[in-house]
Structures are given as C-alpha cells and as structure tokens.
Design goal:
Largest sheet: 9 strands, mixed
Number of strands: 11
Helix content: 25-40%
Mean pLDDT: 87
Shape: globular
Distance between the termini: 36 Å
CATH topology of one domain: Rossmann fold
Low-confidence stretches: 1-7, 277-283
CATH architecture of one domain: 3-Layer(aba) Sandwich
CATH superfamily of one domain: P-loop containing nucleotide triphosphate hydrolases
Order of helices and strands: EHEHEEEEHEHEHEEHEHHH
Structural class: alpha/beta
Length: 283
C-alpha cells in the first residue's frame, strides 16, 4: 500500500531533466522553520565548492527565493515561442521562481492541478543547462507539490528541516515518512534555531527545547547534518538578499552551512554510485 491519499510511485514513469546530474529536495513538514534559508545557503555553499548549481523555488503560493538570492524585481528572459524560460543567476547559482514571473502583490489563487502544472513547467520548461545539482526549495507540508515532484522526476534525496520544538518535530516526522513512501531517501535532518547564543554574554539558551532532532534521527536511522543557531545575522542577510555564506563566509554560521553542503554532496555521490544502469540488449 502506498498510504492514504498517496499514489504508488511508478519509477519507470519518472523522466530525468536533461543535463542535471542530481536533484535534492529541501523540505519541511511545517512553515516557518527556516527551510528556504537552508536551501539558499546550501545552494550557494555548494556553488562555492566549484559545482554547477540550480535552485528551483517550488513554493508557488509563497515564493521567497527572488528576495533571498538578491534577484527581486528582475525578470527572466523567455524565448520568442514562449516555451523556454532562462533562469537568473547570482552567487554562482541559477534560480527560477514563480515570484520572478508575477508581481509581488499578486496572490496565486490556484487549485492543486494548476500548482502541479506550474511546477512541471518550472522543472522542464527552464533552460537549466548542465548542472551538478538542482536544489528544490519545497513548500511546507506533504501535498500536491511534493507528490508532483516525487512522481515526475528522479529525486536523489531530501534534506528535511525542522526546529527543536515538539510541534515542528511531529510535522518533520510526517515529511520523512512521506519521502519514504515515495522512495526518496532522506539525506539528513537540519535542526534550525537549535540554540540562541546571547551576543552580550555568550550564554546558550535552548529557546525551542532540546534533543528533539536527535530523537527523530535515531528513530529513522538518519543523520543530523546541521544544527544551525538562532542568529540575527542569518535573518538579516537573508532579508537583504545576501545569504550568510556569501555575505560573511568566514563566520561560524557560514561554516555550519559549508559543512552541511559537503556532507550532502558526499551522500549524493554515494547514492549515485549505487545506481546500476542495465544496458538494453539488441535483438
């Protein structure tokens, strides 16, 4: 059984996007846990390692990547036939988002099939070129966008973002179980806002509780690949369109994201090596 409301995934129906070696989904069970901040810093950190990186903002209702990657107000080029969109680029990362195509004040009042269609167009109608990795910033939850992604393209793995409090961890668990049902491996858990360090006395305070992500990682036999502190510089740089790994690459916070990027790419390389290509025998 594929589970309530979940169609069984036909692996043979998935189509690779030409030129893209690996696809990583950055997801969360609920909103407000820092998923997009994780995705943009992960993308820039991987690009800083010399990789060719794309970043797809799959949050149709609340796109944030134009702001976070410093591309707000810019418009992508579209070919004369209107069939191919050319992504914008900053910090060595190619990016596409519905937020680049519609005004900021326009609400996307779309039902599920329209969201799935838009996501398919952003995946396959963009001239990504040759990429080592495409990072997809998913909307929160386990709905249409997640199912569309899992059923149409071969996703290498998922990074699941949470905060330490119980309500976020419950939804994080749902996200991990969803990816398991659609046969997408969880590369690891990112515990965001794990601790607050007072800028005056350096005292650590676990504002959102402690130890939840560790319990979840043990239950699902996956790794905690980063524990990111609650830090105003991360938020300020994200709002300004200058991800912390680009704005202050020598900071402790940037180092956390850089280490996470190396861990993720090591896991992706391992998974890709396990893939077996069976040659088609001629008659």
């Amino acid at each position: 059984m594929a589970g309530c409301g979940t169609k069984k995934v036909d692996e043979s129906a998935k189509k690779a996007i030409p030129g893209i070696k690996s696809i990583i989904a950055v997801a969360s069970g609920k909103g407000g846990v820092g998923k997009s901040t994780t995705a943009v810093n992960l993308a820039v950190a991987i690009a800083q390692e010399g990789k060719k990186v794309g970043l797809l903002d799959a949050d149709i209702y609340g796109p944030s990547m134009p702001n976070m990657l410093g591309l707000k107000g810019q418009k992508p080029m579209v070919d004369t036939g209107g069939q191919v969109i050319f992504p914008l680029e900053n910090y060595g990362v190619k990016m596409m988002s519905i937020g680049l195509l519609v005004p900021d004040e326009q609400a996307m009042i779309w039902r599920g099939p329209m969201v799935a269609s838009a996501l398919g167009q952003l995946l396959n109608g963009v001239a990504w070129g040759e990429l080592d990795v495409l990072i997809i910033d998913m909307p929160p939850g386990t709905g249409d966008a997640q199912l569309t992604l899992s059923q149409t393209v071969p996703v290498t793995g998922a990074v699941v973002v949470t905060t330490p409090q119980d309500i976020a961890l419950i939804d994080c668990e749902k996200g991990i179980r969803m990816f398991d049902k659609v046969h997408i491996p969880t590369l690891g858990i990112v515990e965001n806002m794990s601790v607050f360090v007072c800028p005056h006395c350096n005292e650590e305070s676990h504002i959102f509780a402690q130890g939840g992500a560790e319990r979840l990682s043990k239950e699902f036999k996956t790794d905690i690949i980063a524990q990111v502190p609650l830090n105003i510089a991360i938020r300020e740089n994200g709002d300004a369109g200058t991800p912390i790994v680009a704005a202050n690459p020598e900071s402790k916070e940037a180092e956390i994201y850089k280490n996470m990027a190396k861990t993720v790419m090591d896991k992706v390389e391992t998974l890709n090596k396990r893939k077996i290509t069976i040659p088609v025998m001629s008659a």
